[in-house]
Amino acid sequence: MRFRRLFAAILLLSLGAGALFAQVEYRFSYIPKRVYLHQVFPVTVLAVEAEKQKPPTFRFDPRSDLHPLEKKPLKVVNGNDIFYTFYFKAERRDLRIPDLWIQDEDRTVKLPGQSVPVAELQAPPEDRFCGVIASDFKVKTSQVSTFDDKNNLVYLNLVAHEANLEDMRIPGVVEGGVEKFQRKGALARAEYYFVIPANVGEVRFSYYNSIKQQFLPIQVTTSYEHKNVAAQVELNPKDSGFDKLKKYTFIALSLFFLLMFLFSRDLFYLILLAVTLVTLFTFYAPLKKICVQEGAPLYILPVPNSTIGTRISKRIKTPLLHKYRNFNKIEYQHGITGWIKDEDLCKD
Asked: pTM of the entire structure?
């Protein structure tokens, strides 16, 4: 009897020790069977029975042309198992997930890479595909500003998951581009700007939903009557109708306060007259002049990746029409208006 109890105790201790020092199992739990060109896609590593382990270190083969978009994976704990997800982007057709070395407290494990077929996504022309492939895509806010007499400038605040927002291009707009792009795990944020004729009330385009596997439409209003405006930036160098209305209003107020002062001789009306005249003067004050260096690029829009319309042929001094961030709006020649960066202004 004592021998049986001793044997059972030794057996339990052995099993406990084996469980205590059991090694974690690593394997790829998800690699897509097919992706599209420019698609952002996940690759997930499963660590089995890893709840008591310290986080391992991951190293993909540095000789590979394909690297994860972020070095730190997205970690999800499910009971005793842990899922580590990396995100990649399919930039070429011969796509192969590189070999992965995983180092934990006990050892280094190698997971062999795998090839993934890459297809090119074909969209019907009527869908106006913007080039974005995402599991989810939303326009949080839209912002409309006057660009010139015939066009409006529209900013879209975008949020998407597993998305290539940096490749977004809306077909048919005059000028467009992405700025303030950020990526954190599956989440991507960006602002997309484009110029569109002022008489166009809305723009429609589509993105490809990688979960539903279909093109989904997006509609954005671009008219002042229906827009959702977070903040407006006046980009038109010429007088808008609202500016003219303000001028006429202050002229009328000035005449009214002058007449009231002449009739009543009350200093209060004289003070109001002085305030309105000072305000009115700001509308008609001469514009500040700036000096632009020879060869400076003249950008179409006040954003870093805007198209260069032309270059300044010689050093010039010209009125500053508007200031927006580190851009200065000028009229270079009659009918040629654009934006000059601060760094391209004369240094002396």
From this structure: 0.69
